[in-house]
Design a protein that fits this description.
With 489 residues, the protein is α+β, with helices and mostly antiparallel strands. The chain contains 15 helices and 23 strands. α3 runs parallel beside α4 and α3 packs parallel to α8. The longest helix is centred in the first third of the chain and has 22 residues. Bound molecules: shikimate-3-phosphate.
């Protein structure tokens, strides 16, 4: 009977030339077919990089960079564009969307909750928003792959829905701490269960009326802040989040872009429920976290000059530029402009003699995703680089302090992990084998290290590069980094 009803509705849509309805049915149908066949085959969303169990990158030593490239769209902004576009009233157009697995996981989650989303096609996505109260119960658990951002941000807004949801992820995500969001959400009245020690899966019970609150975050985390602000869109009264140090503020900026008021006073961000999101146009800048690999590559490879176009330079993300400059890097920002509420620039990098530094504390949260590749810069610098106060690196997609230290040591670099950082003495880099432990940024960092290595570097477990930078190998080859999938030079 249901099937017949659906067919009647489809026939009616054809009769009345209801393009919107037809588009919804067929987009959902196509995507559902692809989604299920991938889940059944236990494959992730982006094919190319997932054919092998252990995808190995082979990076040949040496090289010099030149040219101009635009790296893919910002991951943080891409996630948020889908979330807020879905909850808005009206149709949101997104350009420059990152077609990486993490952002696609968020996109799929909203499709699973009934939102009609067209694309992505060449970075264009059209989201037919359903309003703050228009999400529908998903047919099963929401599978979020490798993406901590998806799980933490979604948990906030799902805690306020009328229906139950279960959030799951891959092996890496299943080890990451979720109590940092579950605990404050419970204080707001959410009912959430996790596996042992606050690990995923998260089971979120719907039908709770959340209460606004003031929360002082124990760690500097944009994911926790954003989670609570999203819950705050539904919670009675005001929700305020205080951060111990500035973290990326894309959620606050984008909420305002959708016409939702957010008050920011120093280190406190506040929302109150009762307003609505109105559809808008979003242009996603290139991801500075992806550009970072080329900023370091251009700095360490002698005789290089490279232009990175249209990079987001939101001041909560530019720690990598400041740190490289402190190390003696030659970086210039050109053509600075603002696009859709986010500052953007072209960044020119030329090779430079780097020197080791003590990384200033205040820059740590502003460069949190760029440390793996900054450790490579430190290995190429003269003297000692010391990082402290970065214990958060131990709970990223891998334990980035240990995994980077292990890899650098395997290549003959003197690198000593500490509980909250690392001490690296610059010196020669040899060839050898390293393991990225499925962490995209580790895999790309060791690809960059090859520019100064004396032998080839074999990097294991690289498939997850597709989570944030699906065309990394293509762009790397284009500018002169000699890394490719083993066997496919
Ligand atoms: C992100 C916040 C950061 C960052 C992650 C993306 C975001 O995580 O490492 O890649 O989009 O909000 P934390 O909030 O855990 O620091």
């Amino acid at each position: 009977d249901d099937f017949r009803d659906d067919l009647d509705a489809l026939r009616n849509a054809v009769d009345t030339q209801d393009g919107h309805h037809l588009l919804g049915v067929f987009t959902r149908a196509r995507v559902a077919r692809e989604h299920f066949s991938k889940i059944l085959a236990r494959r992730a969303y982006v094919d190319a990089m997932h054919d092998n169990n252990d995808l190995i990158f082979l990076a040949q030593p040496g090289g010099r960079l030149s040219g101009r490239i635009r790296v893919p769209g910002d991951k943080s902004i891409s996630h948020r564009s889908i979330m807020l576009g879905s909850l808005a009233e009206g149709t949101t157009e997104v350009e420059g969307f990152l077609e990486g697995e993490d952002a696609l996981a968020t996109l799929q989650a909203f499709r699973d909750m009934g939102v009609v989303i067209e694309g992505p096609q060449h970075g264009r996505v059209t989201i037919h928003g359903v309003g703050l109260h228009g999400l529908q119960p998903p047919p099963g658990p929401l599978y979020l792959g490798n993406s901590g951002t998806s799980m933490r941000l979604l948990s906030g807004l799902l805690a306020a829905q009328t229906f139950d949801t279960t959030l799951t992820g891959d092996a890496s995500l299943s080890k990451r701490p979720m109590n940092r969001v579950a605990k404050p959400l419970r204080e707001m009245g959410a009912v959430i269960e996790t596996a042992a020690e606050g690990r995923p899966p998260m089971v979120i019970r719907g039908g709770q009326q959340l209460r606004g609150m003031s929360y002082e975050m124990p760690m500097a985390s944009a994911q926790v802040k954003s989670c609570l602000l999203l819950a705050g869109l539904y919670a009675a009264g005001q929700t305020s989040v205080t951060e111990p140090a500035p973290t990326r503020d894309h959620t606050e900026r984008m909420l305002r872009g959708f016409g939702y008021p957010v008050a920011v006073d120093g280190n406190v961000a506040t929302v109150e429920s009762g307003h609505k999101l109105s559809a808008t146009h979003i242009e996603v800048p290139a991801d500075i976290s992806s550009a970072a690999f080329f900023l370091v590559a251009g700095s360490i490879a002698e005789g290089s000059e490279l232009l990175l176009e249209h990079v987001g330079i939101n001041p909560t993300r530019t720690g990598v530029i400041d740190i490289l400059k402190l190390m003696g890097g030659d970086l210039t920002l050109e053509n600075q402009r603002e696009v859709g509420g986010e500052p953007v620039a072209d960044i020119r990098v030329r090779s430079a003699k780097l020197k080791g530094i003590e990384i200033p504390q205040e820059l740590v949260p502003l460069a949190i995703d760029e440390f793996p590749v900054l450790f490579v810069a430190a290995a190429c610098a003269e003297g000692r680089t010391i990082l402290r106060g970065a214990e958060e690196l131990r709970v990223k997609e891998s334990d980035r302090i240990q995994v980077m230290a292990d890899g650098l040591v395997a290549l003959g670099v003197k690198a000593e992990p500490t509980p909250d950082g690392i001490i690296i003495d610059g010196g020669p880099i040899g060839g050898g084998e390293v393991n990225s432990h499925g962490d995209h940024r580790i895999a790309m960092s060791f690809s960059v290290a090859s520019l100064r290595a004396s032998g080839a570097i074999r990097i294991h477990d690289c498939a997850n590069v597709a989570t944030s930078f699906p065309n990394f190998l293509g762009l790397a080859a284009q500018v002169g980094i000699r890394v490719s999938e083993e066997g496919k030079a």
